Amino acid sequence: MDNGKKNLPERKFKAGPVSAVVWLNQSVTKEGEVRGYATVSLERNYKDRDGEWQKTSSLRLSDLPKAALMLNKAFEYLVTKDQESGSSA
């Protein structure tokens, strides 16, 4: 399962400073079967006092509509991908 490669995002949806990232992961069941599943991370980018870019999971009021839209896009992507491939994430 771990082949030494870094897990790269499957897809990223971004609206201003808010992004939702779709990750494809794998786990091994007790029976030894490898199963795939998707996760979604939500984050906001901002510049700190020194002008360095940072990431946070804390959202401001003005970020909420963007976050909702990005999560909906991630959901739509995963559902339509599953329907096309015939699998479930």
Description:
By secondary structure, the protein is an alpha+beta fold. The chain is built from 1 helix and 4 strands; from the N terminus they run E-E-E-E-H. It has a 4-stranded antiparallel sheet, with helices on one face. A hairpin with a 2-residue loop joins strand 1 and strand 2. It has one domain.
Lateral strand order in the biggest sheet: 1-2-3-4
| Helix/strand/pairing category | alpha+beta
Number of helices: 1
Output the helix-strand order: EEEEH
How many β-strands, per DSSP?
A: 4
C-alpha end-to-end distance? 17 Å
Poorly predicted regions are none
Shape: globular
Computed over alpha carbons, the radius of gyration is 16 Å
Oligomer: single chain
Rounded mean pLDDT is 90
Number of domains: 1
| Beta-strand percent range | 35-45%
Helix content: 10-25%
Write a brief structural summary:
Helix content is 25%, strand content 38%. It has 89 residues and is of the alpha+beta class.
Question: Keyphrases for this structure?
Answer:
single chain, 89 residues
Which helices and strands, and how do they pair?
Elements: E1 11-15, E2 18-28, E3 34-47, E4 53-56, H1 64-85
Antiparallel strand pairs: 1-2, 2-3, 3-4
